[in-house]
Amino acid sequence: MSFSIAHILFICFGLFVLGASGFLIRKNAISMLICLELMLNAVNISLVAFGRMHGNESGHALYFLVITVAACETAIALAIILNLFRLRRSIRLDDATVLKG
Amino acid sequence: MEASSSISIEMIHWLAALVVLLPLFGSTIWFWAKKYLGEKWVGVLGTASVAIPFIAVCVLFFELNEPILVNFFSWITIDGKSLVDFSFRLDPLSLMLGLIVTGVGSLIHIYSSGYMHGDEGFGRFFSYLNLFVFSMMMLIWSDSLPAIFLGWEGVGLCSYLLISFWFKEEANASAGKKAFIVNRIGDFGFLIAMFCLYKAFGQLSVQEILAALKSSSLSPEQLELTSWACLGLVLGAAGKSAQIPLFVWLPDAMAGPTPVSALIHAATMVTAGVYLACRLQPLFILNAGSLEILAYIGAATAFFAATVAVFQNDIKKVLAYSTISQLGYMFMAVGLMAPTAAYFHLITHAFFKALLFLGAGSVIHGLHHEQDMTKMGGLRKKMPITFWTMTIGVLAIAGIPPLSGFVSKDAVMSVAKDSDRALIIFFAFATSFLTAFYMGRLWVMTFFGKFRGHHEAHESPAPMTFVLIVLAGLSVVGGLINWPHFLGGGEWLGHYFSKVVTENVSTSEHGLGILIFKVGMAVVALGLAFWKYRNFEGKDFKSSAFEIFRKKYYVDEIYDFVFVRNLRRLGEFQWKIVDQGIIDGLLNGSARWAQNVGERLRRLQTGQTQTYLLLMWLGLIVLLVGTWKGR
Question: Distance (Å, rounded) from C-alpha B290 to C-alpha B277?
């Protein structure tokens, strides 16, 4: 059985919407971070799929780039969350509203 | 023109530059240097920075036989052509007044070093005086109208600074402001005249304008412009020389230190209007009407100021009104086409009025700043030098022969008599009588009778009495420069000026009768004053009919009612309605509107990251749908 590009994009879309809605709904910062990774990886899958469709490796190269950036970003985000916890004794983002106008 | 002078052209340049630069340089120094040099050296050096220019002017005066234009550099250039040159015109008119300004100026600097002794503003005072001499020399020597205007404004500024010299008292500060503002009205006239002359001739150099007047026949349009220029100049001269209707500042100007009153408000600055009218005489001759205006303004001012002077009790106020009155004489003479007589009176007046003011200053100094004549009296014995020099001044201004005032006033009166204008003749002769009377009154009230004051009087220090003696000498012999023919003289000044001014040739005979009448009038007036005031006990003319003179014809009150209050009302309207209401209202309104909008938009910022994200995605969806639809 072979997958058409459309099938894969549907899966990607599903994953992305899952991540996006999780990011909007969850209050826990760690959960939101996981949802963020979900969205990134949905895009990664679509990148690899496009690369295969065109028969070249540019999609794969982009995948590596994204995964590297995502790793850095996660490291920074975790550091921020750690500091937030030290300050507030909680990692609920509802509590972090200092910038309220 | 170089051929006729025995000194080289470079030498003339250097001397002329020295005359203006030294006082200017001095004015930047004394106000801070007193701390380091001490009063004595500031006094000596401050005097030197005017006395050295005096020597330079003397050299120029004796060595130059022909009028000469000393050009330094071009100030304003338009279209490659120099419009305003920084140049001096050295001719009999400017050299003569230059001598007076630096000469009398030096004497008054010496006097000031005694008078201002111990004042905390000693250095500042000498700075201002030096700056005044610089401005005055610019005013009288410059050839270009804007450069003259620079001096014109400069002397106005110095006048302001020196009137309000003791600015810690409100009255002095507001007297300075009054002088400055009233002079601005005159300056407006000067500016208008300058614009008109530029429009008519395309030049601003006095020499070139006068040459253009002489050489070419003028178009009607140019003629009209010159008549407006003349009216502007009359206004300007009336402002600077304290004539009707702008004389109100001069009596108030007496708030300044007395040497200032002597130098600026009697001898030099106030004669600038007379000087300007002489300098631009061809322009006035072209417009006979403006000459008439000058003559009538002068005669009326002379008379009205003299009537006021009779009823003043402040010694300096008497002298101030006397100055206004004498300046009126000069204006009258200029208006009747007799600039030599005007100039002659200007010179002798500079001597004897400076002497009178400095004598009054000496009295004030001796009585510890008492200026009220009703609190003086009997000072004859206590201040002998002041008494004798003042006596010479009083006799000179009253017109007792052979003192200088007699000959110069006689020249002015002859001019008035020749004019065949009944009103002017009446004003001239009545003023002469009143002058002798109020000067006699001042003299008797100050020096005769019983001492009515509280402080112990003392004679003034040597620098002051020395200057009084020198000026008294000048007041005696000053008449010699234009000693009239009928008394066996040569009328040197008339010959000296004959190249630069046009004279209305006198036709009438100088009979012995009229001479005796004039002298007799002065003697009678002095005698009347002596008889009335010799035992003065605080009683004066009591009748309420004289109230109008005592109140100075209510001119200040009328101006206050007509101009000052309405201007203030206009100012308050502009302030409260236009500025605070409309302009501030618009600004504050827009600020308040922005604040209200901001207050509402503020709520959008929840601080919740997820709200922002939701909105972002909604926006993204809108954009995506939009592009999809648009395809």
Answer: 11
Asked, as a colleague might, if the bond just before B402 is cis with ω within 30 of 0, I would say yes
Contact of A23 with chain B, judged by CB distance below 8 Å, is answered with: yes
Any chain B CB within 8 A of the CB of A86? no
Task: Kindly report the number of other CB atoms within 10 A of residue A10's CB atom.
Answer: 12
Distance from C-alpha of B222 to C-alpha of B196, rounded to nearest angstrom: 9
Chain A residue with CA closest to B604: the answer is A101
* Contact criterion met (CB < 8 Å) for A97 and B603: no
Interface test with A, best of B595, B601, B610, B613 (most A CBs within 10 A): B610
Instruction: Determine the Cα–Cα distance for residues B433 and B520; give it in Å rounded to an integer.
Output: 10
Please check whether residue A100 lies inside any domain of the structure.
no
Task: Assess A84–B contact: CB distance below 8 Å, yes or no.
Answer: no
CA-atom Rg of chain A in angstroms: 17
Give me the count of residues in chain B.
Answer: 631
- Residue B215 — left, alpha, or beta (φ > 0 → left; ψ -120 to 50 → alpha)? alpha
Residues B388, B104: Cα–Cα separation, whole Å: 20
Using one digit for the tens of pLDDT, what is the confidence trace for B198-257?
Answer: 999 888 999 889 888 888 788 888 889 999 999 999 999 999 999 988 999 999 999 889
Give tens-digit pLDDT for B338-381.
899 999 999 999 999 999 999 999 998 888 888 888 888 888 88
Q: Where are the alpha helices (DSSP H) in B287-421?
A: 288-309, 315-335, 339-366, 384-398, 404-418
Give the minimum alpha-carbon distance from B611 to chain A in angstroms, rounded to a whole number. Answer: 8
Q: How far is B607 from chain A (nearest CA, A)?
A: 4
Residues of A in contact with B617 (CB under 8 A): 20, 24
Residues of chain B with confidence (pLDDT) below 50? 1-3
The one-letter code for the residue type at B273 is G
DSSP state string for B474-532 = HHHHGGGGG--GGGT---HHHHHHTTTS------S---HHHHHHHHHHHHHHHHHHHHH
Whether residue B428 contacts residue B412, with contact meaning beta carbons closer than 8 Å, is answered with yes
Residue A68: give its domain's CATH number. Answer: 1.10.287.3510
Q: What is the pTM of this model?
A: 0.80
CA distances (Å), origin B584, targets B113, B573, B574, B596: 52, 14, 12, 18
The ipTM assigned to this model is 0.78
List of chain A residues whose C-beta atoms are within 8 Å of the C-beta of residue B606: 97, 100-101
pLDDT given for residue B510 in this prediction: 65
Integer Cα distance of B365 and B380 in angstroms:
15
Instruction: Print the domain residue range for A70.
Output: 5-91
Does residue A54 belong to any structural domain of this protein?
A: yes
Is there a domain that residue A42 lies in? Answer: yes
Please say if the pLDDT value at position A94 is more than 90: no
Q: For chain B, give every domain's residue range.
A: 558-597+606-630
Domain total of chain A: 1
Asked whether residue A97 is assigned to any structural domain, the reply reads no
**Among candidates B356, B139, B146, B389, which has minimal Cα distance to B241?**
B139
Per DSSP, the three-state class of B235 is helix
Q: Is the CB of residue B605 less than 8 Å away from at least one CB of chain A?
A: yes
> How far apart (Å, rounded) are the C-alpha atoms in residues B226 and B452?
56
CA nearest to B114, candidates B471, B469, B461: B461
φ, ψ at B43 (rounded to 5°): -60, -45
For A41, the token pair is: 């990886």
